[in-house]
């Protein structure tokens, strides 16, 4: 992963053994599966066949009651609670707030600078957006404490789970405990606000989850589930979106034609609006080419390499039986670079996504697929489009490192975090 040769290693394995083979990973008997059928097995199977299974380090840090760990009825119950807040109908009202958060970020971290490092700044931006829109935490001491502990927590999520003092894993566990306490305090505050009728159920994700009631007015989601899914949303939204935005910026530096097309689309939108007015949902709908560029970036540089599941019973698949209890490992995004699915896969071509029908089912899975498609899809789309709008209309930039290498740790990390020289448009 760190040498960015994982796909090459797996492709060699596929050529030797085919799209299904057995191996040992993390000391467990494992089946490696590949292809659209493998992606469908992972994303479309019900909870009685296979279950989510994360490495022990992630499970211990994020807990066992989040969407990555739940299956069956519990998975559906918690997912159904999260989806209403993240669906387009709800997110329309948050476009202006996200616009405001992104403008503040640009003013604080980009304007007046000659050189910036993109990936750390994008991580700062995505975490601030999550704090503001999903958890209702405004800028200040509380948000700064969240950032500090969150960065320490994610530092050990993919480490060897040996809990010795001074290890990354130990520091991550302790940071996780602090974050859980902070989220519990947030929940208590928002529960009081709700009881006093001083808060709208739609003002942030935590308030929304607390507002959901069952038949006898009981809370549908337990406090433990709210805490752990808040932490999951923090982690998923922070890492994946920041990687996507970083690689779009790298691409635009290397491809003048794509940059020019995005700039024209975004400047047309900017010219159509009174100065200082926030972007709207209708503006985002006009950013079709920009989103196709984002999708093609995700195809070539998917933030998530693969994942794990556990067979809950013997499964017949590909002419073999996967035994009950075995670990299933799949590298979903490898279909993105399959020449039989995407011709000339190493060529950057946003026209691949002009029509949804042009991409076969379970072949492009940057956001998952089927019933397990990422509930944060629309949130990520808004975040990406608004950020790119302000960057391309206000700045040009040049890469300080011209190599196109990146490593995985476990997300893609370009050389030195992608340092760039930036030039304000008004100086051109």
TrEMBL record:
Determine if Transmembrane is one of this entry's keywords: yes
Q: Could you tell me which Gene3D superfamilies the record lists for this protein?
A: Cytochrome P450 (1.10.630.10)
Statement: the UniProt record of this protein carries the keyword DNA-binding? no
Q: Which SUPFAM superfamilies match?
A: Cytochrome P450
Compartments annotated for it: namely: Membrane
Task: Name what cofactor the protein needs.
Answer: heme
List, in alphabetical order, the GO biological process terms annotated in this UniProt record. Answer: sterol metabolic process
Q: Which CDD domains match?
A: CYP90-like
Q: What is the topology of this protein in the membrane according to its UniProt annotation? A: Single-pass membrane protein
Which molecular-function annotation in GO is an example for this chain? Answer: iron ion binding
Family statement = Belongs to the cytochrome P450 family.
The protein here is known as Cytochrome P450
């Amino acid at each position: 992963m760190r040498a960015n040769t994982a796909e090459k290693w797996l492709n060699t394995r596929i050529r030797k053994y085919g799209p299904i083979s057995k191996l040992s990973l993390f000391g467990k008997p494992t089946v490696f599966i590949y292809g659209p059928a493998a992606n469908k097995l992972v994303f479309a199977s019900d909870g009685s066949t296979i279950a989510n299974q994360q490495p022990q380090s992630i499970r211990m840090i994020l807990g066992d009651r989040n969407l990555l760990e739940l299956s069956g009825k519990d998975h559906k119950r918690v997912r159904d609670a999260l989806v209403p807040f993240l669906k387009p109908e709800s997110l329309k009202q948050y476009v202006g707030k996200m616009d405001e958060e992104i403008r503040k970020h640009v003013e604080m971290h980009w304007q007046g600078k000659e050189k910036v490092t993109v990936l750390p700044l994008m991580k700062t931006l995505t975490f601030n957006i999550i704090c503001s829109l999903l958890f209702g935490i405004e800028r200040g001491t509380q948000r700064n404490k969240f950032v500090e502990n969150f960065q320490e927590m994610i530092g050990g999520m993919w480490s060897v789970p040996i809990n010795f003092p001074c290890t990354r894993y130990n520091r991550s566990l302790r940071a996780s405990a602090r974050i859980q306490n902070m989220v519990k305090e947030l929940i208590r505050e928002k529960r009081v606000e709700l009881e006093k009728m001083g808060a709208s159920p739609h003002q942030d994700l935590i308030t929304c989850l607390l507002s959901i009631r069952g038949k006898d007015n009981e809370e549908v989601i337990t406090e433990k589930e709210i805490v752990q899914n808040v932490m999951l949303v923090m982690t998923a939204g922070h890492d994946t979106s920041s990687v996507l935005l970083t690689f779009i910026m790298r691409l635009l530096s290397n491809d003048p034609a794509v940059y020019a097309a995005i700039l024209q689309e975004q400047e047309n939108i900017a010219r159509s609006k009174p100065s200082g007015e926030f972007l709207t949902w209708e503006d985002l709908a006009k950013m079709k080419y920009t989103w196709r560029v984002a999708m093609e970036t995700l195809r070539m540089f998917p933030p998530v390499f693969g994942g794990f599941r556990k067979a809950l019973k013997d499964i017949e698949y590909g002419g073999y039986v996967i035994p009950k209890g075995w670990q299933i490992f799949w590298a979903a995004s490898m279909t993105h670079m399959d020449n039989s699915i995407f011709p000339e896969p190493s060529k950057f071509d946003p026209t691949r996504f002009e029509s949804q029908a042009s991409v076969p089912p379970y072949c492009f899975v940057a956001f998952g697929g089927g019933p397990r498609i990422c509930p944060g899809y629309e949130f990520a789309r808004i975040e990406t489009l608004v950020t790119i709008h302000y960057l391309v209309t206000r700045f040009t930039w040049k890469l300080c490192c011209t190599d196109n290498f990146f490593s995985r740790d476990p997300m893609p990390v370009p050389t030195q975090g992608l340092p760039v020289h930036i030039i304000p448009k008004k100086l051109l």
